[in-house]
Write a structure and sequence with these properties.
- With about 325 residues, the chain is an alpha+beta fold.
- It folds into three domains: about 100 residues; about 90 residues, RNA Polymerase Alpha Subunit, Chain A, domain 2 (Beta Complex); about 90 residues, RNA Polymerase Alpha Subunit, Chain A, domain 2 (Beta Complex).
- Helices cover about 20% and strands about 45% of the residues.
- The chain is elongated, with a radius of gyration of 42 Å.
- The N and C termini lie far apart (about 145 Å).
- Keywords: Membrane, Transmembrane, Transmembrane helix.
- Pfam families: YbbR.
- InterPro entries: c-di-AMP_regulator, YbbR.
- This is YbbR-like protein.
Length: about 325
Amino acid sequence: MLQETKANTVLGWLKRPKSLVFLTFLLVSFILWLLIKLTQIYSYSVSYDVVYKNLPKNKLFLNPPSTRVNVLVEANGFRLLKTNLIDEKASIDLSKVRSHSNKWFLLSNDIETQLKEQYRDIEIKQVLTDSIVFDLGVNKKKKVPVVSNVEINFKTDYGLVDSLIISPSEIWILGPDGLIDSIHYVSTQDMVLKNVQSDIDIETSLSQPDSLSSIEFELKEVNIRGKVNRFSEKMIKVPLLIENVPEGTKVRTFPQQINVICRAPIQNLKLISPDNFLIVADYKEVQEGGGYLIPKLVKKPSNIKEVKLMQTKVEFLLKKEW
């Protein structure tokens, strides 16, 4: 009840003409006082976030540079209010960076000059931050091959027709020269493909360990493709050719043909014949072979993935021709 009485008293007072005049006068006085304060000049310290630009193309930061600069400025209250309301950033141009004995730096005077060009509505009185020192290294570019770390487990009787194709097979890397020189390849992330029985076509990320965090890769992913087919085996008999037989001598081998096991896609096996192979034994190597001829595969069809000779040693008889 008491609170209601007080509220009615206040409302009654506000409705009086003299009260409204008083409040209007009070509001106008406050606005005038605020305008006077905002038009006055103040000195104050400002801490700006720093944004670096125009780093020389052949240089890079080996360590993060300073991210803030403290400045003593002088400006009116309006400008001070703007500074407090807006997160302003100081742009530092590194095309004007100084160097001495492999040290890179900007003096406080250099920073002050740049800030004066950037903030023309503020009087820069003094840069409170000491000179900024930069840890810069030489930026080097190099092309390296991409190596696959994809493990493929095929379904029984299936396999790759040809080698995996990585696209692109090489990428550009960019970074500190000392580190770039130590990198000879980049690899994909570890991946396991299970029970594969169809063609492979995947996108996989490149592996970039923490030790290479300062290295910039041209690409983050590569494509890996491979043609997969069902494989079978076929055995054919291929005549054995003997080389370097002494003049006036005839060599008879046992057997005269070598059994060859071929493993390849079924459609490729249908196309092969003994004429597609060449197996040779060199008579000059008889002593090294311990009295045996050693058959060697010299030629095979390019579309046959695996070839195995069932005879690795061949007995022979030597006969003089009269």
